[in-house]
Amino acid sequence: MAKYWLLLLLLLLAFLLPAAHAKSCHPDDLCALRGFAGNLGGGGALLRAAWSGASCCRWEGVGCDSSNGRVTVLRLPRYGLAGPIPGASLAGLVQLEELFLGSNSFVGSLPKELFSLAGLRKLSLESNELTGKLSSRLGKLKNLTLLNLSVNRFFGRLPDVFGDLTSLDHLAMYSNGLSGSLPPSLSSLSSLCELNLRNNSLSGLISHVNFSGMPLLASVDFSANNLSGSLPVSLVDCSALKSLTLANNQLVGTIPSWIGELDNLRCLDISNNSLVGEVPKGLSCLEGLTAVDNSAGMAFTNMPLYVKHNRRALQQQANVISGNNNTVRSGGGNVLSGDNNTVISGNNNTLSGTNNTVVFGSNNVLTGSNHVVSGSNNVVSDTGHVVNGSSNTVSGRNNMVTGNNNTVSGSNHVVTGNNKVVTGG
């Protein structure tokens, strides 16, 4: 019986010893973590107090490999940590795989020692006060699956290194000061699920990115930049796409019919661009579309809102425009239907609907009601218009006409000027 209990005790110890070993940490990592905490301001004092003893694998925010006791995870979000990121100390964590330092008060640029952590898989530094240009050394972190540098003060061009980061599935750098064109190497991210570069100063053609090789892409947000060109047809190959947000850019052209082929699309925001034309009928099949918020033109839950608030910057071309709240500047020969449209310095336009405005235009034809027209040689019919200029032809009722050589028919008009021809009551 004694031998039985002795054998049982030995088996129990064999089971417990590896667990105890897992809670000890490598002396090099212990030294590196103490150096890291020792160089921090703000909440660094509290962190140094919490990190006591030599069993660093038991410390808050620290995770270790159970087999060798090496530190693989450092998660310290929202700890009030301040100062530059202690790069030299981080470099001592040679087997670090995950680094989460978001929502602190770190300043300065990314330390060069950070790029020596070749095993790093997840890097999240969002919501700090980091600055500087992003180094091409980012390409050395070839095992990254997540990179989040959002809500900082980085500026300059995005380095064209994403051909070396093909394991990325989440890339977020929104709300910085990044500028220049989109790097073509973004097209290499075949594992990408989320791409968020909103609220920067990126410019150039959006088609610099070829989305055809991104079958897993579920979310794209390029809003609030200065991107130009038409909606990239390569997006049609992103069958998993659920959210497409391209608002507040300088995109042109029509709303393409292939958007209706994105069966999983739940959110579409292409407002505040220079898109023209009618909404493709195929979009009515996307029954899953939901609102981002309740702002008109910001989220699209019914067809008229898909074109609402798209800016019209049309010059020297004959365009056909339908919808509401459209603006035409310095265009000629345009045909507009809908309500609340505005034509500025345009000629030979045809407008129908209500509450349309023509400013400094000539030879325009307007039908409907409550239009405001300035210019010459305009033909205005129906009711409630305000017409200024000369040689205009006005018919209907309750119109106010000023200028010279106007021909007015109908009733209840208020007419001022010279050389009028007035018929009616």
Automatic annotation (TrEMBL):
**What is the annotated signal peptide range for this record?**
1-22
Stored InterPro entries: IBP_b_roll, Leu-rich_rpt, Leu-rich_rpt_typical-subtyp, LRR_dom_sf, LRR_N_plant-typ, PGIP, Serralysin-like_metalloprot_C
According to the UniProt entry, its GO molecular function terms are: signaling receptor activity
UniProt entry keywords in alphabetical sequence: Glycoprotein, Leucine-rich repeat, Membrane, Repeat, Signal, Transmembrane, Transmembrane helix
Tell me which GO cellular component terms the UniProt record holds: plasma membrane
Location(s) in or outside the cell: Cell envelope; Membrane
Q: Which PANTHER family match?
A: LEUCINE-RICH REPEAT-CONTAINING N-TERMINAL PLANT-TYPE DOMAIN-CONTAINING PROTEIN (PTHR48059:SF35), POLYGALACTURONASE INHIBITOR 1 (PTHR48059)
Stated name of the protein:
Leucine-rich repeat-containing N-terminal plant-type domain-containing protein
This protein's species is: Triticum aestivum (Wheat)
